[in-house]
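In this section we walk through a basic example: taking a raw amino acid sequence and producing a predicted 3D structure, encoded as discrete structure tokens. The instruction is simple. Fold the sequence below.
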Amino acid sequence: MFFAFLLQSCKKDINYSNNQIEDIENLDFDVSDMEINNDEDVELYRKITGDYPDGTYCAEIEYYNPKTGTRRTYNLDVEVENGDLSLIHWNNGGWLDGSHFSPQNISSGKVDFTSDRGYRYTISLASYGGGCYSGASGLRRTIENDIEEEENSSYREEEKRRSYQEEEEE
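The resulting token sequence is shown next.
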């Protein structure tokens, strides 16, 4: 009984807020209790699990609209939940979420997908914690301009069709 007490008292407590290699190597270490505060914590978490932990990341967003040929690259904050990209934040408070694309597995740190409007995105995770809003309003403006251009193009095509039908009816 004395030896069990001695072993228990010598056992090192795990510090989940300042993760060290000896903490991770401890048999009692539980990765789900790990506090992620910076990129080093993310790397330790990835080393253990192979995934990115939940949280906000600064990410490089490559946008392409195949209908207009518009191609741009921006840095925006994104959300990762359960290994999936779940949300892209605009700097003006807007967002792209599950109503625009289905959650995408981003365990490799990069993912390609097509939105509900047919726009193609390539997302590459960068630093943990977010706060990288450079150019976000530009991306939003680019997308809004592309939408407007598509709508105008559809309107012009409809007008041409009507004009052609009217000429044939005469």
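Looking at the output, two observations stand out. The radius of gyration is 25 Å. The longest strand covers residues 70-81. In the next section we compare this with other chains.
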